[in-house]
Amino acid sequence: MGDLTRKHVPYASRKELVGVLETLKELTVAEACEALKLNARRYYRWRSRPEHPAVKMAWNRITPDEEAAILTAARDEALCDMRAAGLMVYGHESSKFFSSVSTIQRVLKRNALQSPYQVPRRKRPIKPDVRELMTSPRRVVSYDATEFYLTSRVRVVVIPMLDLGSRKFLHYGVRVVSFTQKDVMAIWDEALWKEDIDPTQLTALSDRGGQMKGSRTKAHLIGKWNIRLEFARPYTPDDNAWVETFIKYMKYHPECPESFETVQDVIDWVAKFQKLYNDHPHSSLGYVRPNEEHAGLGNTIRNKRRENLKLAAQKRRAYYDSKKSGVIDYDLTKDRGSNEVLEPVFSLEMVKTAESAESDKNGVSKETLKKDDFRANSEAVLCQNR
Fold first, then answer.
1. What pLDDT, in 10s, does the model give residues 274-305?
2. What stretches of the chain adopt beta strand conformation (E)?
3. What angle do CA 92, 93, 97 make, to 5 degrees?
4. What is the C-alpha separation between 202 and 132, in angstroms, rounded?
5. Up-side HSE of residue 131: CA atoms within 13 Å toward CB?
């Protein structure tokens, strides 16, 4: 069996091993235990263990009458909705049985009278989906808080508000050191009054900061303005990536000062950046300015640009068609690019046949014919025409 040190041995193997060692004549029990690396005390414990050990029973185990009383109460239609704790209270109040909650749970489980217990789990937040609302302005507003530090290490908090439909920098608030729910409520009131937005069609997107998700802020935005609230998941800045990117752009803009001496310097920079950002073409809007998109002019500008591109393409084609009008035997029905060399519509065999016939008729060498015939030097001629 090998080394038996710290090894579990089944009861049948123990019994067989004890029988072998008892019939062993060549070695003593101590020598055999040493060879098997088995503790002698362990061997004698196996030897003294009875073949059918007595079944142990707890001294405070409930009696059959008590278990029957518990089962009777559990099967009663008037008490069937009670859990183990309720049955425990019922047993003490009715004096029919006296037991703990855990004992009643074991009795119910043993008799298949208890429903499987599920550990209550905290409901996980869902990722906010606002992309369908970003097709038009004044539908969804995202806001967050960021920090600027003065040279004196005083913290200045800026709370920008961004319209995700038009990418317009709507409004902002500036507070020193920190801000509260009351500040968030005041900034929202100012933005709604300034932009004349219908709050009933508006969705607010923010992170789960205490000032954004506080009870007072919720009661103000939902109760007074009837605004729908959406919150990003914890530790997931990608859920509100638009305002995060906007804040980074505001901090790393080329015209952003390297340091701020006073709080007024921060306010002046944010006001300047608001004008720069709203009057700068935005790539996600098809290079339309946020102010123009917010005013409802975005589609008109993009359609006008598409028409201008079509008109410019027609003018370019007419220009190059006029340049190719002096070249014969070329297919001008296709719209070729300005850098593409035109291919002749005749085959190489026809060119060779024409060359040989012309040279035989006039007695001119092929080298002279190739030098003078534009068909043999079509690429050079076309490059000159362009």
1. 999 999 999 999 999 999 999 999 999 999 99
2. 140-143, 146-149, 155-163, 168-176, 203-206, 228-231
3. 35
4. 13
5. 4
Structure tokens at 19: 């029988």
Map tokens 């997107």 to a residue.
Answer: 205
Domain boundaries, the chain: 11-48, 64-110, 131-278, 324-386
Q: Considering just the CA atoms, what is the radius of gyration of the chain in Å?
A: 45
Structure tokens at 52: 């059918």
Residue type for 66, please?
A: E
Number of neighbouring beta carbons within 10 Å of residue 210: 9
CATH superfamily of 131-278: Ribonuclease H-like superfamily/Ribonuclease H (3.30.420.10)
As a whole number of angstroms, the distance between CA 308 and CA 291 comes to 22
Pairing of strands 155-163, 168-176: antiparallel
Contacts of 107 (CB under 8 A, 6+ apart): 62, 67, 70, 71, 74
| Residue with token string 């362990």 | 42
Residue 286 CA to residue 328 CA, distance in Å, equals 43
Neighbour tally for 37: CB within 10 Å: 13
Stated pTM of the model = 0.58
Instruction: Give tens-digit pLDDT for 135-164.
Output: 999 999 999 999 999 999 999 999 999 999
The Cα 84–Cα 33 span in angstroms is 53
Measured between its terminal Cα atoms, the distance across the chain in Å is 98
